[in-house]
Design brief:
Blueprint (H helix, E strand, L loop, with lengths): L67 H22 L11 H18 L4 H6 L2 H20 L18 H5 L8 H22 L5 H18 L6 E8 L3 E4 L12 E15 L3 E6 L13 E3 L4 E5 L2 E16 L2 E4 L6 E10 L6 E6 L10 E3 L3 E5 L4 E12 L4 E6 L5 E3 L2 E8 L9 E8 L3 H20 L25
Antiparallel strand pairs: 1-17, 2-3, 3-13, 4-5, 4-12, 6-7, 7-8, 7-9, 9-10, 11-12, 13-14, 15-16, 16-17
Amino acid sequence: MTPIDPLSGLPEDAAPAPAEEDAVPAPTGEDADAPDGVSAPGADGTPEGTEGGPPAAPVPPRRRPWGLSEAFLLCAGITAGGFAAGAFFGPPDPKAFKAPLNFALLGLAALPGFLRLAFPASRALRFLGGAPFASALICFFVAFALWMGLVPQSAPGPGASVLDSGHGTLASLGLFGLTASPPFAFLFLALLMSLSAAGAKGLLKPRKPVFVLNHLGLFLALAGLGLGASDRERHFMTVSEGHVEWRADAAAGGGSAPPELPVAVRLDDFDMEEYPASLALIDRNTGVPLPEAAPVTYALDGAGSESLPGFELEVLEFLPKAAPVGGGAFARAVLKASAQAARVRVRPSGGGAAAEGWVSSGSSMVPPAYMVLGEERVLVMTGAAPRRFVSKVKVFTREGVEAEREVEVNSPLTAGPWRVYQYGYDTAAGPMSLWSRFLLVGDRWRPVSRAGFVLWFLGAAGLVLSGRPAGKASPGTAPARRGAPAGEGA
């Protein structure tokens, strides 16, 4: 029997076909791949049955660069390779990376940037200059910094390997001298390559000058400080007053002639300022300050009074620069050979006759003066500590640069690539020292690092000045859709 259609009352084979507008076409092409719950796009690309603008089209996964997981794996591989190199070849000798090798490494670090400009669509170069790889590198450097903060660093000598009996395995791996180890060097080179690739990304987008300044400045600063370390020179030089010296001090232990430097130093004058001396009681027989458990001193800063163990002390006069004038007395004398002196009155604490006289710390030309108090105690003036010592010098370089000024411990003189620091003097002679010892530091990469810091500062200032309040879009950017995440445009 032929079944009857309940709606039309006719046999099913005679039921009318659905109207053309009611017919649902089979999905074809991209519609067939649409996931459940997502309407197929209309003719204009807008999904049917949705409100607002179209969502941002996702990039196919195969076109995206690698992500954070791959970045951490790559950094782990670089670190493992560095530890393996340190285990079998030992820590590298920093002096082995002098020019021209450090220039070759600089070119290798800058190569990804040039390749990125030539091949902007390269997946590997986009990953190298991307945020995931930079984040992984930063995490590894933070881990290295934590290790160096917790474990004392003392790198073994060049050429030490895990096979040497004189060095342990951990030491030869570089764990006690990370900044001079192969893992640190490999990661540092990877960081420079990442910065060059990222900076080239900014050059491909002319509207990102701040991005380029930040990355290029950091690249130059790190390259000048890191790669230029092998060319940095440190020498000590002793110069007599009124003489010119261009030879560095011989190395400890002798055996080699003093090296001649491309810089000469002339010492014109040396001067020193001292802190006020102190008064103290000492045992006349042993010379030990009293009381032995906790010696008491009185700092001289002018006239005043003080209690010392068993005595009442009164300072009647204090002369920062004085010279003996006979009869145990002193008078003011502003000379290099002068010494500090004080006229004091001492009275026993339990009562008794007071004693008055001069005490002095002495100098290389002035003998010290002291007061004998009974049979066991002596009042003396301690030696004055140097407050400031300075040398007036003139520096000549092979390039024809001349500079003249006063040099102090933390105030060097700069002449071309050289900086001259005050390092020492004849401590036995004190202010009468006839020579000074200087520390000379030569760094020909300093202009590179300084240029990097300048660009980095300009980039940071650009970030501050180009900042926009939250919620305001930049010119030419469509406003965000209602309900869309912050920062997402139409």
